[in-house]
Amino acid sequence: MQCRAPSDKQFEFRDRILAALPPQQPNETESDFGARQLKIYNAFVTSVSIIGVSDEVVHGHNEAFFDSTSIPERIKTVFFSTISVPQTQLGITPVCNVAVLLDFSQPPAFDFGTLPSFPTPNNASNFTIAADNESWFTSTRTRLDFFSVRKTKTAWLDRGFVYDVVLMFRGIPIALWVVYHVGEWLGLIKPPLPSFLATAVCIHVFILAIQLFRVLFPYTRWVFPRVELESDLKSSPLQHRVALIAPLAWR
Fold first, then answer.
1. What pLDDT sits at residue 248?
2. N or C, which end of the chain has less CB nearby within 10 Å?
3. Out of 93-97, 179-183, 212-216, which region has the weakest mean confidence (pLDDT)?
4. Contact 140, 46 (CB under 8 A)
């Protein structure tokens, strides 16, 4: 989990606030001043909210939270925020803040309601950065480069119009290959079928092959998701990949 990146920037902003904190006031005891400092110190933490696939929700405020036994075994989303705790405890919104949403939800294995030419509708993962200076923004943006680094090698499957390209250079040639062999098989039938009937069968087989390709393309996207938790060994796509690859490994 990438809790450290937003947390480090939160601590950096906290130190700026503490450095600019007004000194101990004449009507303020040393213990009261220390309590005021401690309240600010403890408020600038990164809140983490995790939602499991069964919609269970857990919250935490540090990296140790990810070692907790309360973490759902299967994770759907993870949300990091450096805003919520300062807003709740101090009533202020840090001018330098980060919010990160990691979405590990998966589309259906067989999706007949979405055109395959469209990109995969799992586009929720995102982040927002607000800063009062360019260096803070730039360094924070650099720390969040895991959005591009952690993509799987098959993330290109989820882009728009990939289906059309793959259909043109793979789907249609495969369908024509199937039709060719079906035509050879029809030629062996005795007595031979009327030409119009043989043509109708070949056209029907071509359409069936294209439709089968249409069904298998979303399934391929599901088996090879755009983003995936390395620790989620019980995920259905991973189990399907193992089932598909295992026979090839034994050859």
1. 47
2. C
3. 93-97
4. no
* Alpha-carbon separation of residue 164 from 107, 122, 157, 158 (angstroms): 19, 19, 11, 12
* Cα–Cα distance, 168 to 40 (Å, whole number): 60
pLDDT of residue 177: 95
Which of 42-46, 68-72, 208-212 is modeled with the greatest confidence?
Answer: 208-212
Any idea where the domains of the chain sit in the sequence?
4-152, 162-224
At 62 the three-state DSSP class reads: coil
Q: Rounded CA gap, 107 and 90, in Å?
A: 40
- For the entire predicted model, the pTM comes to 0.60
Using an 8 Å Cβ cutoff, are 113 and 139 in contact? Answer: no
Q: Is the peptide bond before 191 cis (omega within 30 degrees of 0)?
A: yes
- Strands 126-130, 97-103: pairing kind: antiparallel
Q: Which amino acid makes up residue 70?
A: S
The pLDDT tens digits of the residues spanning 59-99 come to: 888 667 777 778 887 788 888 888 888 888 888 888 888 88
Three-class secondary structure of residue 77 per DSSP: strand
Tokens (6 digits) for 167: 């259909």
104: closest CA among 52, 153, 58, 59?
A: 52
Residues in CB range of 152: below 8 A, 6 or more apart: 224, 225, 226, 227, 228
